[in-house]
Amino acid sequence: MVTNHSVTEFILSGLTQDAGKQKVVFGIFLILYLMTLLWNILILVTIKRSQSLGSPMYFFLFYLSFSDVCFSTTTAPRLIVDALSQRKIISYSECMIQNFSSHFFGCMDIFVLILMSFDRYVAICKPLRYRTIMSQHICHALVNLAWAGSFIHSSAQLFLALKLPFCGPNVIDHFFCDVEPLLKLACMDTYVINLLIVFNSGAICLLSFVILLISYIFILHSLRNRSTEGRRKAFSTCTSHIIVIILFFVPCIFTYTRPPTTFPMDKMVAVFYTIGTPLLNPLIYTLRNTEVKNAMRKLIVV
Description:
Layout (H helix, E strand, L loop, with lengths): L1 E2 L2 E2 L1 E4 L6 H31 L6 H27 L6 E3 H34 L4 H4 L2 H27 L8 E2 L6 H5 L7 H32 L5 H29 L9 H22 L2 H12 L1
Parallel strand pairs: 3-5
Antiparallel strand pairs: 1-2, 3-4
């Protein structure tokens, strides 16, 4: 509804306008979302109850799975429900909350991935000082910093979104409320705000990606003096992390480091990092991690 030159609600265009395809979208994404919840909650319970998974790597993996559950929940349920709705209406307040939440947990994912890479760097490159550097106190402090950094980032995104005046139309060409598609509806010059978004979200994505790549280059370089078995085990762990990093960061960089232009693949790219990555993360880590799989078997047997 548009009154007094202000928008009080938005209409999400969703992934498709075709009624037949919307039923397919409902079925597919309901299954994907339930699988995401199942796998990530299984990891959370396994790490929480298993005494063998007490190392910092699994401490950080716990928070990655928790963040993935929340990140997926900010977008997937709305997409699933809207697939069966005639009018995909979302109020202004709900839109702002979704924008804040998706950036909060998405940013938390990024910071936890950085912490996991730091943990692997210390474990492989500085093994004699590992227990000192990655003590329980330091790990908790690092996670708290990640929460704080995520809050600052998402608060900045929310502040920018709240500064946008909307006079109509009110149809968001997306399946969830993000600040980029909202820019196209604002009745003002959004050049400066778009620059601020690029410096905020874009810089976090790009700089984090570079930091992670550099850390894994150092890690892989340090493996040259290891035994064959040591190299194989460390390389297997690092490969899992690198796969996750590429799957998550490439779509994010594509979305948040460019001018406010629309491409046909934008929605599918967003699907990949908001719904696909939280689903793939636990599969990648558990399928390539014997300790986690053994702990899960013991949990299921008990």
